Amino acid sequence: MAERTVRADARRNRAVLLQAAAEAFATGGLGVPLDEIARRAGVGAGTLYRHFPTKEALFEAVVHDRMQNLIEAAQALRKADDAGPALFELLDRLVAEAGPKKDLVDALVGAQVDVHARLGGMGAQLREEIQHLLTAAQRQHAVRADITVGDLMALISGLLLALHGNGNHHAADPQRMLAVLRDGLSAVR
């Protein structure tokens, strides 16, 4: 019984650390000290280091969790009767997660962590789930038939880049950008 309690505590600590890290990285980027993340999580630094020996390992775990959540959401949406709204719901979720996720990926790349090698399989899995939703929406005539998953991924990438802006212009309005994307994807009736 005591072993189960230790395991449950370890799982709880890991989950609390990941949540605290996700919030800290979203606002403070790579510069957030690990001790600050441990403090926010309400655990000691030793607990953090037992779960995540480096800051890069913690970043990777946060990105992994976000990707896994998106994959699971896409898989759940595949069961929807109306595939068009299901596809757009996933796009809404991708955009909602884009801000902190992009910061984390940028930080990982800047920290010399090869995100593509470590998380590329998850990216491929998410793309496959998007393909299923797109195909189902096209079969129901909710989305243009001439759009490929490559087209959609390029549109999503462009939208996410626009949301972050750069030194030359301000970030775009996410809801307006999504509305334009929905309009462009919708099948002409």
Précis, in short:
The chain has helices at 2-28, 34-41, 45-51, 55-77, 83-110, 115-139, 149-164, 174-185. By secondary structure, it is mainly alpha-helical.
What can you tell me about this protein's structure?
- Residues 33-52 bind DNA.
- Pfam families: TetR_C_43 (PF21597), TetR_N (PF00440).
- The relative contact order is 0.11.
- Helix 1 (2-28) packs across helix 2, helix 5 (83-110) packs antiparallel against helix 6 and helix 5 (83-110) packs across helix 7.
- This protein has helices at 2-28, 34-41, 45-51, 55-77, 83-110, 115-139, 149-164, 174-185.
- The protein has 8 helices and no strands.
- Helices cover 77% and strands 0% of the residues.
- The chain folds into 2 domains: 1-53, Homeodomain-like (Arc Repressor Mutant, subunit A), CATH 1.10.10; 54-185, Tetracycline Repressor, domain 2, CATH 1.10.357.10.
- The model has no long low-confidence stretch (mean pLDDT 84).
- It is mostly helical and 189 residues long.
- The radius of gyration is 19 Å and the shape is elongated.
Largest sheet: none
Q: How many DSSP H or I helices? A: 8
By CATH's scheme, which homologous superfamily of the largest domain applies? Tetracycline Repressor, domain 2
Q: What is the C-level CATH assignment of the largest domain?
A: Mainly Alpha
Strand content: under 5%
Structure class: mainly alpha
Rg result:
19 Å
Give the N-to-C terminal Cα separation. Answer: 62 Å
Which fold name is given in CATH as the topology of the largest domain? Answer: Tetracycline Repressor, domain 2
Number of domain modules: 2
Can you give the mean pLDDT? 84
Query: Element order, helices and strands?
Result: HHHHHHHH
CATH architecture descriptor text of the largest domain: Orthogonal Bundle
Shape: elongated
| Helix share, percent | over 70%
Taking pLDDT < 50 over at least 5 consecutive residues as the criterion, the unreliable ranges are none
Organism: Rugosimonospora africana
Keywords: DNA-binding, Transcription, Transcription regulation
GO molecular function: DNA-binding transcription factor activity; transcription cis-regulatory region binding
Domain HTH tetR-type: 11-70
